[in-house]
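#lab-general

N.A. 3:47 PM
ok so I finally got the sequence cleaned up, no stray characters, all 84 residues accounted for. can someone with queue access submit it? mine expired

B.Y. 3:52 PM
send it over

N.A. 3:53 PM
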Amino acid sequence: MYQLVNLAQKFSLFSEQWQPKVVAEMNDYQFKVVRIAGDFIWHSHPETDETLMVVEGGIARGLPRRACAGEGRGDGRRAARGGT
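B.Y. 4:20 PM
back already:
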C-alpha cells in the first residue's frame, strides 16, 4: 500500500532548526526532514548511505576533495556509505 507524504505539510508541523524529524519509513530506512540555517559542517555516516534534497532555499558546502558543491531548490545528492 502506498502512503502519501506531503513535505510542505510535514515542514509546517515544526519550526526549530537542526532537529531532523522522521516523516516516513521503508524497510530499514528512515526519511527525515530538517530545517537548517547557517554553516553546514561536513560529516559522514560510515554505516549508511545518505541523501540530501533541497526543498526550499539553497545550500553550499565545502566537501573533502572538492572546492564546493551547491544545491538549490529541487536538487539532490546521494552520498555513498562513508563517502561524499
